[in-house]
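Help!! Second protein's tokens look totally different from the first
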Amino acid sequence: MLAVGVLAGLSVLSLLTYGYLSWDSLGLGPGETEATRSELGEGPGVGDPGSQPHIVFILADDQGFRDVGYHGSEIRTPTLDKLAAEGVKLENYYVQPMCTPSRSQFITGKYQIHTGLQHSIIRPTQPNCLPLDNVTLPQKLKEVGYSTHMVGKWHLGFYRRECMPTQRGFDTFFGSLLGSGDYYTHFKCDSPGICGYDLYENDNAAWDHDNGIYSTQMYTQKVQQILASHNPRKPIFLYIAYQAVHSPLQAPGKYFEHYRSINNINRRRYAAMLACLDEAINNVTLALKKYGYYENSIIIYSSDNGGQPMAGGSNWPLRGSKGTYWEGGIRAVGFVHSPLLKNKGSVCKELVHITDWFPTLITLAEGQIDEDIQLDGYDIWETISEGRRSPRVDILHNIDPIYTKAKNGSWAAGYGIWNTAIQSAIRVNHWKLLTGNPGYSDWVPPQAFSNAGPNRWHNERVSWSAGKTVWLFNITADPYERVDLSTRYPDVVKQLLRRLSQFNKTAVPVRYPPKDPRSNPKLNGGVWGPWFKEDEKKKKLDKSKGANKQKKNKNKKKAN
């Protein structure tokens, strides 16, 4: 408690002295980039002409914070452990609490409030997708000569052809459009009777690949094929968005061998899925070395959100789970592995957010960021590679104006600055503020998975006073969110509420349309895919206009 108070006091001083948007630069000057050599010839250092690095971004799905060997998990992840140990572990790294938001922020470098995707996820039957006026990371990389390929889960909308991955900057796409589905059959039911096939190669259903292969292995094979057929002298961007370890909990039998002692069936299946994923990433790394990419490559690994305990994931000792703004929902497993790193084998505790990859990777690729693009991400390569201070001092975790309002929230509780009924969360330096209904808030220790079924008796809960809608934590001193400081530091609360209000002024309207019955796969050959046809809509409008003109002309003749 004393440590919390001391650090909290220091953070108040920091906020009052330096404000929200400044870091002490420590007077560090620019450093040289380490020179590297390619396996296939002379490889100049990053930043030299012709030295564009190969970029491999691996996104795991629903991997819990604890679910990696180097975070103390009982699940073995030797590949992830080795890559992270030889690279830079990101131990103050944040994503969004759900699939679509993290993916949209990675690919645009923008917060959800600036794309209209601030509520929930994109549902299969919604006429919705990442807005077409947003420039994407692969589009920017293509401008500077990169070959761009995506393998895995898209989950950024597909109701129009213009929303498909191949229309958003990827030369090729192989994977699923939806948020989840069967790992073997690639079928997905959104609701009873609304079912369809969801495996694509570029813009068409990949029926030829419907061979019952487990998706983690199938995606890895595709990555190996891409690497084998590409020229390693030309830069490549590979976005590998594995389906694992998202539900449904399925894995090939051989991966259960080491985990038969886990009584909880969900945890056991989850462990097998993660073991398979770890092996897959080893195979990707071996392919990078075999085909001559590795020496000039940057491998980034990230989970898209926290784990879901009811589906086997563990975020211990963090609070909360996937879908919440507690640390367990948004603090992620992440690391960078690359021969191009200066400080290999180190730990980065500087603030990093998933939006930061957009400007960081474009800069590394020697691309240009247009002045009219209002980004929320920062170039953090020197922070990761050289151990410098992060340019980032705050993160808007989100503002969701249509999420279920907290019953007791009010403007009065927000000091007239903010309506605390609204779900929101923000981080500024050491401080984190939550308002509204932040979601499931238990701590779920490893003992919760000791029985055959889910056991909440082991979970820890905090009962707060009725009507509470504001929480304040010093995350540096209290990363597990056990000591609420909102009543002790009302001035800090007010400052963070003002920052929320400033962000909210820049928000665009929420895009969350109702279901469209035309999305039913039965109307599209049994396949989930684009259903909205712009041309047909225009033709109907033209026909109706023509019919109206004819009616008017007839009426005129009658009148005459």
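Here's the second one for comparison:
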Amino acid sequence: LDVPKATEPRGDSDGPRRGSLCDRHCAAINNVQGDLSDLGPHLHRPRVLPAMSPPSCCQQHSEEVCESCVVKTTLTAENVVEANKLSNNYKFGFKKWKSHVTARPWEDRSEIVKELYSDLNVIRGSGGSTVTCGNVLYLLLFGWWLSFIYVLMAAMMFITIVGAPYGRLCWDLAGYFLWPFGKVIQKVEVPKSHRALGAREAGAETSGAGESSALLGGPVPHRWRPWCWADGRHWQRAGAVVWLCLGYPMLVLAHGLVCVIAWLLVILIPVAKLNARTITRVLLLPPEQVVVRRLRMTEVPLEGEVILCCYRAVNPYYYKYAVDGINVFAVNLLPLVLVTLVLGYVDSHNRLTSSPVKFTLALLSIMPLSYYIGMAIASISAQSNFAVGAVVNATFGSITELTFYITALIKGSREGNRCYAEIVKSALTGTLVGCVLFVPGLCMVIGGIRHQEQRFNSRSAGVSSALLFLSVGGVFAPTLFSKVYGKLVCGECHNVTQNPLGHYLCHNCHFDLMENNGTLYYSHVQPLVYTVSLLLPAAYLIGLFFTLKTHTHIYDIHISGCHMPGHHHSAVVHWSRWRALVILLLSTLCMSACADLATEHISPILTNSTISQYFIGVTVLAMVPELPEIVNGIQFALQNNLSLSIEIGNCIAVQVCMLQIPILVLFTIFYPTNFTLVFSDLHVYASMFSVVLMNYIFMDGKCDYFQGTVLVMVYFILLAVYFFAPSPSGC
């Protein structure tokens, strides 16, 4: 869907010439587009509020200045909680969250989404051909061996004699699970007369075998027999006992394995639903009540309850599937966290797995935990006032990165290894460069594939850019100070010309700040570091006050209090505030444990790897925790909401400089480590160049996929520089 563009406001008839230039000023102001996937049919076309109409603005101001001419985007949410969440997305310093924090009304969802959550018991009038690539994939992965297991179970049940009815059921299900598409499993009821007859006469055959259905074609194969009680005493029969002891457990294991594999593959979730419903419904019914039929292309209704009816094994839209508001990928990765913690702390001597495997598992576990932390922060902020939301976002917004950085610094301090401090600096620089270049660039490229040109609010991006310039200058001020006043010390020098006054070639040179017992560092550099660490958070608070209180019109957002006709829904939140708080605390605790395992098992990688430690820091350690944010930015860009995609990267970069680094400096005061706010030249040049390039690209308030490609290519060039750079001294 394309977001409707705001119409240009027109001047009144009294002053068309005077209003024309002002109209152009007003049209130049970029509208913050709404989130289509969040709002769906509730997205209103951007309109000019009566209090800020362009004609009155143009009559009251000169042609040169028309700043109050603001075209506002009106967003209508389903409920108050969603309105708060949408508003928080455009607030400086708040996490930009894509998913809903409340349950969306069923009637507001698209037909594609409704199909994802529907049970496999809906019969279509004309489903088309069932021979598809996905169905053939099911046959190759699961169908043949499931059918074979049912054939074996059928033979076993026939051998027991008393389990013969279940043998016939397994034989029918063997054909069904070989190719279940276009077939239906139905529960039929035994007529009361037949139940009474079966209770009185053990050898009588029941009537009604001639029933037929035009939809299914042919007679209905009733399976009840005089020895098969269809009442509540079904499980008292000997055959049922044999079934529960021999057949049912084996089939539960087989279907459970298929269910787990299909669920983990996500696009095969229909197969998982098929097998789960078989375990919980089909296999627990009396065999005489289960009928397997082949559908025909007609619309005559079936007789009896439809238990299973599947047409497709693969649905690519299941990446949208959510369980209690949690995306299916985050659900699937949650067991990985448990495996990581068990292997990390139980197998401390690496008898089961090696250190690189544990390090990889720990990093992968950070991704779902970051998602849960983001979801909890968004839920608490949407259900709380501005002050609580700001505190939660400022406190837990950077908890993922800080837990890793602090545990790495503690381990480096205990071992006396400076390499951990350098890794932390590389990760900080990698997060800054990645969020300035890679995140917005990737969003521009992917969004530009669907939309030829995307526009964003250049004024709000300008505020973030100004804060980013300030923060980068403050962070690297001690480094520049040390370059000017520090003493250059080299580890090894060779005279190239064999002349005492000739040229010397030196290696491993650095600026020594500890000359004369560290007078320069302790008297000049360290006070400068503490001063910068106090000023940067203060600038962050001023930025919050500026953008959220005194100049809210820059972000140009208006949340309407009205709802669409017929849609008066109360907010049914996925997570209450207390539940979100508990999940936030538990996720933070698990995050700390995974960060501890990652730093514990990174040593072999740093010592044995031929790759530069700079490269490991700026790529793996920097970008893996930001993957949920990158996914959010891509989804916003696909919905033509590039403003939020850009703000995601800018917000993370600003938090790195204005919150994370000052917190690390404050931590070193109470727990001395090797971390100093003096970066290498490579970090300084890469960060400065990235910020300048980002501001140049965002200057005009519009972009396309080519500009995004430029940002991504520059990012990869910097990665190549880090890849071939020698490891920092001390590593």
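Reply: Different proteins will give different token patterns, so don't panic. The chain has two domains: 113-187+232-317, 325-556+571-724.
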